[in-house]
Structures are given as structure tokens and as C-alpha cells.
């Protein structure tokens, strides 16, 4: 197919601006060729649209939209198959898919109404969380005065809360498919006037070391290195005012995002620690936030 660029056509028309018979003939032929080209382009466009909208291509687009949780977009594609390929096996399959989508949408509406009616009561605590390359198992979450960590056999370290304060603590074992993961934030929220307000973020400490030498960094402890061990236990803690802890129900929440990075400590022991980096947890949480990035671990 010959397609003449528009600019090229304009140049020819300008060059052939004389009024003699030969020029008129050439102009007439050029117009005829341009009209033919326009018709061919229109036909090509129609053929292209026809190819794009075959049942097979509509199925491919619909499945992709479903994988992106775009139910309405997928329904439109399936409906196009039903409307344009009536009486075929493809139309029958598409009709069944539309019924599934309608059922899913209706169930989502019912669940949204249930959450609206129950509020935070709809949230169920869990002790196991899996996202990305990480699996977390929480053995215990509690409030207390003494937070212990860095046990190396005959000695361990502790941190006692000041008068009028308490620690929110957790024992968690983290399993990673990644050799150097960033660990998620464990957050403490307080119920206040129907909203969850952020009080703070628990810090990570290693639960134990192989011996005193590994705690000092003189020898390696592969048990505390995801590059060598798939699962590592941690003791986490955060000191808060008892006034805050008594004034409303406490929600311990996990945000499914890497927030703590493994770093080398310049001064003190142990020489390896997980330190908080950018995380930006929401200052207040709504029930809807627990549909995506946030998980309730425990109410205290």
C-alpha cells in the first residue's frame, strides 16, 4: 500500500500551481490517489479494530484486568464477547465470567456494609503474617515493665521502663526468602474518639547470640544473619506513658512495608542492629486501612 505523507502532498500541490491542462491533469490524478490512500487507511483501521476485538483478544484483556482487580473493566470486555459472538462457546464462557464478577461485586458491597456497621469490631487479630518474601510468627505480645534481649548464654540485657511508663513488647520469629530483607514496622495505636491514633513504633533487638564473642562481634553469629539463616528471632519493645496506655484500647499493628534496615553500629555492642529508616506510618487509621497495608496483631 502506497501512503503519501501530507507534507509531501502539499509541496506537490504548491509546485503544480499553474493552470495549464497538464498541471490540472496531474492535480486530478494526485487527488484521486489521495482519496484512494484515505480509503485504504480507513479499511486498514477497520481491519485493525476487528483484529483487536476478536474473542481471543478480548479474553486476554479481560484476564489482565482481573489480575489487576479491575472488575468493571473486565466485565466490559466479557460483555463485548457476549454481544458480538452470540451463540458461540466463547459467549457462553464470557457469560459465566460475568456472573462470577457480579457475585464478587455483590459480596464486596455486603462486606463493606458489614464493616461500616461493626467498625473496628470487625478486625480479627492474627499471630502470623506473610507478605512479599517475609513470614512473621508472633509468639507473644504484651505490656510489661522489663524488656530483655541480647541473651548470650550466661547473661542478657534488659531495659526497665521508668516510673509511670510501661513497655509494649513482642517476641517474633521472622523467616525470609531474601538474604538481606528490610523488616516491617510494628506499631502501637490507641483508640481515641473512634479513631486509631499512632503512639509509636517498636524497636528490634536480637533475642539471643551464640556466645559472648559473637555478641561483641569477635566471631560471626550466622544465626542472626539472614544471609545464612532463614529464620531469626527478635525481641521488640517500645516504652510509653501509662497515661496513654490506660486512656483507650491499645492496638498493636503491623505495616506491610520494609522499614528497618540491617546496619553496622559504629559504637557499642552488638555491632549489628536493625535501625528504622523511612516508613511513614499513618498517624490515624481507619477500618479500611486494614484491607491493604495494615494488619491487626493484638488488642491490649
Question: Care to describe what's here?
Answer:
- The protein is an alpha+beta fold and 300 residues long.
- It is built from seven helices and 13 strands.
- The strands form three sheets. Strands 6, 7, 10, 11, 12 and 13 form a six-stranded antiparallel sheet that branches.
- A hairpin with a 7-residue loop joins strand 3 and strand 4 (157-160).
- Helix 3 (55-67) packs antiparallel against helix 4 (71-84) and helix 4 runs antiparallel to helix 5 (89-118).
- The radius of gyration is 33 Å and the shape is elongated.
- It starts with 5 loop residues before the first helix and ends with a strand.
- The relative contact order is 0.11.
- The mean pLDDT is 86.
Descriptive labels:
300 residues, alpha+beta, six-stranded antiparallel beta sheet, 13 strands
Number of helices: 7
Characterize the main sheet.
6 strands, antiparallel
Low-confidence residue ranges: none
The fraction of residues assigned to DSSP E strands is 25-35%
Radius of gyration, Cα only, in angstroms? 33 Å
Q: What pattern of helices and strands is seen along the backbone? A: HHHHHEEEEEEEEHEHEEEE
> How widely separated are the two ends?
75 Å
- Class computed from helices, strands and strand pairing: alpha+beta
DSSP strand tally = 13
Q: Report the principal-axis shape.
A: elongated
**Helicity, in percent?**
25-40%
Q: Whole-number average pLDDT?
A: 86
Amino acid at each position: 500500500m502506497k501512503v503519501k505523507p501530507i507534507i509531501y502532498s502539499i509541496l506537490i500541490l504548491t509546485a503544480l500551481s499553474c493552470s495549464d491542462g497538464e498541471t490540472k491533469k496531474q492535480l486530478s490524478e494526485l487527488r484521486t490517489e489521495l482519496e484512494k490512500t484515505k480509503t485504504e487507511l480507513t479499511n486498514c483501521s477497520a481491519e485493525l479494530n476487528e483484529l483487536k476485538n476478536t474473542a481471543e483478544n478480548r479474553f486476554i484483556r479481560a484476564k489482565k484486568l482481573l489480575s489487576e482487580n479491575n472488575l468493571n473493566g473486565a466485565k466490559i470486555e466479557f460483555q463485548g464477547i457476549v454481544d458480538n459472538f452470540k451463540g458461540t462457546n466463547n459467549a457462553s464462557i464470557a457469560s459465566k465470567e460475568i456472573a462470577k464478577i457480579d457475585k464478587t461485586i455483590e459480596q464486596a458491597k455486603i462486606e463493606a456494609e458489614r464493616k461500616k456497621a461493626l467498625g473496628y469490631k470487625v478486625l480479627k487479630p492474627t499471630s502470623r503474617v506473610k507478605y512479599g518474601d517475609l513470614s512473621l510468627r508472633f509468639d507473644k505480645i504484651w505490656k510489661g515493665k522489663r524488656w530483655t534481649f541480647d541473651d548470650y548464654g550466661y547473661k542478657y540485657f534488659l531495659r526497665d521502663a521508668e516510673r509511670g511508663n510501661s513497655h509494649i513488647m513482642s517476641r517474633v520469629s521472622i523467616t525470609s526468602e531474601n538474604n538481606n530483607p528490610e523488616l516491617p514496622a510494628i506499631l502501637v495505636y490507641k483508640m481515641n474518639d473512634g479513631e486509631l491514633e499512632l503512639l509509636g513504633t517498636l524497636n528490634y533487638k536480637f533475642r539471643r547470640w551464640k556466645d559472648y564473642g559473637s555478641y561483641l562481634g569477635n566471631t560471626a553469629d550466622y544465626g542472626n544473619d539472614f544471609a545464612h539463616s532463614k529464620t531469626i528471632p527478635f525481641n521488640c519493645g517500645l516504652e510509653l506513658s501509662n497515661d496513654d496506655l490506660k486512656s483507650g484500647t491499645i492496638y498493636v499493628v503491623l505495616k506491610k512495608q520494609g522499614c528497618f534496615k540491617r546496619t553496622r553500629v559504629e559504637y557499642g555492642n552488638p555491632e549489628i542492629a536493625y535501625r528504622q529508616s523511612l516508613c511513614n506510618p499513618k498517624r490515624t487509621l481507619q477500618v479500611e486501612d486494614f484491607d491493604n497495608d495494615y494488619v491487626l496483631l493484638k488488642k491490649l
